[in-house]
Q: What sequence folds into this?
């Protein structure tokens, strides 16, 4: 082999981001939650009331995953009764643009 030749190493998928996309698409409610947040529905009780079939337990699991990935922030207000709201992080906005691109790609495949 010539010393000027370059060897390429096997390229693999980015582990964390691939797992994140898989987890979010695997949760059938995440995309719905993003839609709710885009429509200024950011309180858990409001979210559950706005979507038929969405339970508080499943919503909380979905929100927790999104917070762990840094897609959403949880805001706790020091009030009585307690008030909690969710918002999309700056990273979450970037991530959602990627999801939009994936959806556009799917439309191209389907066409």
A:
């Amino acid at each position: 082999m010539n010393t000027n030749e370059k060897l390429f190493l096997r390229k693999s998928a980015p582990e964390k981001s691939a797992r994140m996309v898989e987890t979010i698409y695997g949760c059938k409610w995440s995309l719905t939650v993003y839609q709710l947040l885009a429509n200024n529905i950011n309180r858990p009780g409001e979210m559950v009331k706005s979507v038929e079939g969405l339970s508080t337990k499943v919503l909380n699991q979905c929100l927790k995953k999104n917070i762990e990935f840094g897609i959403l922030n949880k805001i706790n207000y020091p009030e009585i009764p307690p008030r909690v709201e969710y918002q999309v992080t700056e990273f979450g906005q970037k991530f959602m643009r990627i999801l939009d691109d994936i959806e556009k790609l799917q439309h191209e495949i389907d066409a």
